[in-house]
């Protein structure tokens, strides 16, 4: 086994940056005419991930509140439980 690490070529980095740019909402809105720098794109990615975490936390809180107010034997509660098990 070699102790050398394989190196990523500049072409592979550019391809990965392109793929990342294609999945970020902000980058898609800008279109392909303006290519973002790798640094800016990584910052956008971090911000997007943070916003997704906040959204998950908010939805979790809302679900907890909903479950707390729901009659545990109701049909609605059973539907929610079955969705959570999926």
TrEMBL record:
<protein>
    <submittedName>
        <fullName>Transcription factor ILI5-like isoform X1</fullName>
    </submittedName>
</protein>
<keyword id="KW-0805">Transcription regulation</keyword>
<dbReference type="GO" id="GO:0046983">
    <property type="term" value="F:protein dimerization activity"/>
</dbReference>
<dbReference type="InterPro" id="IPR036638">
    <property type="entry name" value="HLH_DNA-bd_sf"/>
</dbReference>
<dbReference type="InterPro" id="IPR011598">
    <property type="entry name" value="bHLH_dom"/>
</dbReference>
<dbReference type="GO" id="GO:0006355">
    <property type="term" value="P:regulation of DNA-templated transcription"/>
</dbReference>
<keyword id="KW-0341">Growth regulation</keyword>
<dbReference type="GO" id="GO:0040008">
    <property type="term" value="P:regulation of growth"/>
</dbReference>
<dbReference type="InterPro" id="IPR044293">
    <property type="entry name" value="PRE"/>
</dbReference>
<keyword id="KW-0804">Transcription</keyword>
<feature type="domain" description="BHLH">
    <location>
        <begin position="1"/>
        <end position="52"/>
    </location>
</feature>
<dbReference type="Pfam" id="PF23174">
    <property type="entry name" value="bHLH_ILI"/>
</dbReference>
<comment type="similarity">
    <text>Belongs to the bHLH protein family.</text>
</comment>
